[in-house]
């Protein structure tokens, strides 16, 4: 069993503000894009990511950040929501990033939540990641259940892209986009597996706000466990975690 200590190669950055956290994350992604002729990015959704994507759009518009060589793979999508649904993650990505930068449409990948055969869709998604040469940098958030992607507890650390049932906690957390009605949040989703995520060459997890402090402390200081899929990032050889002071508060107190 691997040690529960944070490995030396994990870089935890604590910034004074959420704005600084978003800026550091956007800089890392922009550096990845500029450093490779054909960068492959794993992308995430959520309020934290909106600010990061806004900064990337600004760099595209003002600093010639070129996305034409980028291939992207999103972590997850709700089952039953087409790309045209404003609550789908494909729609989210178009609104916040793809409509404003020059990623070729053929190089954009988001799981298809209305595929007639969801298991086949998951297998094809894995195949597409492999065909791209693998994800170079995977952007991650963290949910209240400790999930990365939609890898609800328990999720095997060798799990692959698959259909999952969403925890009631997650559905409540995500209900803001559904009129604050958790019953309207789809019960199932497609998600990259923990094993899929861990195969990315670099991981970048971003969390801000005091609401994330408890789960960040669990993810970074608690036992490495399939009951908290985010603890798996401590098994990765090149992982950066960017936090603001509020999100880092309990972790810093426990680590002292």
Automatic annotation (TrEMBL):
Is Transcription regulation tagged as a keyword?
no
Instruction: Name the GO terms of the biological process aspect.
Output: carbohydrate metabolic process; glucosamine catabolic process; N-acetylglucosamine catabolic process; N-acetylneuraminate catabolic process
Q: In which pathway does it act?
A: Amino-sugar metabolism; N-acetylneuraminate degradation; D-fructose 6-phosphate from N-acetylneuraminate: step 5/5
Q: Name one GO cellular component term.
A: cytoplasm
EC number(s) recorded for this UniProt protein:
3.5.99.6
GO MF, one term, reads: glucosamine-6-phosphate deaminase activity
- Residues in domain Glucosamine/galactosamine-6-phosphate isomerase? 20-234
Q: Which UniProt keywords apply?
A: Carbohydrate metabolism, Hydrolase, Isomerase
Q: Which reaction does it catalyse?
A: alpha-D-glucosamine 6-phosphate + H2O = beta-D-fructose 6-phosphate + NH4(+)
Pfam families reported in the protein's UniProt record = Glucosamine_iso
- Domain of life (superkingdom): Bacteria
Q: Known InterPro entries for this protein?
A: Glc/Gal-6P_isomerase (IPR006148), Glucosamine6P_isomerase (IPR004547), NagB/RpiA_transferase-like (IPR037171)
- Mind telling me which residue stretches traverse the membrane in this protein? none
Active site, renumbered = 76 (proton acceptor), 147 (proton acceptor), 152 (for ring-opening step)
According to its UniProt entry, the function of this protein is described as: Catalyzes the reversible isomerization-deamination of glucosamine 6-phosphate (GlcN6P) to form fructose 6-phosphate (Fru6P) and ammonium ion.
Recorded hits in HAMAP family, A to Z, give: GlcN6P_deamin
Spell out the family assignment given in the record's similarity comment: Belongs to the glucosamine/galactosamine-6-phosphate isomerase family. NagB subfamily.
Protein name (database record): Glucosamine-6-phosphate deaminase
């Amino acid at each position: 069993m691997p040690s529960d200590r944070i490995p030396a190669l994990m870089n935890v950055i604590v910034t004074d503000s959420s704005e600084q956290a978003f800026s550091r994350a956007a800089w890392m992604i922009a550096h990845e894009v500029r450093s490779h002729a054909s960068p492959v990015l794993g992308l995430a959704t959520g309020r934290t990511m909106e600010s990061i994507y806004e900064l990337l759009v600004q760099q595209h518009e003002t600093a010639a950040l070129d996305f034409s060589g980028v291939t992207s793979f999103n972590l997850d999508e709700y089952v039953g929501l087409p790309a045209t649904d404003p609550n789908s993650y494909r729609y989210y990505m178009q609104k916040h990033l793809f409509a404003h930068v020059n990623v070729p449409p053929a190089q954009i990948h988001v799981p298809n939540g209305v595929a007639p055969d969801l298991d086949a869709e998951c297998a094809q998604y894995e195949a597409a990641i492999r065909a791209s040469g693998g994800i170079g940098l995977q952007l991650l958030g963290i949910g209240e259940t400790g999930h990365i992607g939609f890898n609800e507890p328990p999720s095997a650390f060798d799990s692959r892209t698959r259909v999952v049932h969403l925890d009631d906690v997650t559905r409540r957390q995500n209900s803001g986009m559904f009129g604050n009605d958790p019953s309207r949040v789809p019960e199932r989703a497609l998600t990259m597996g923990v094993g899929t995520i861990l195969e990315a060459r670099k991981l970048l997890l971003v969390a801000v706000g005091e609401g994330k402090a408890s789960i960040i402390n669990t993810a970074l200081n608690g036992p490495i466990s399939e009951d908290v899929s985010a603890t798996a990032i401590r098994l990765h050889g090149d992982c950066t975690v960017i936090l603001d002071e509020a999100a880092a508060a309990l972790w810093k107190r426990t680590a002292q």
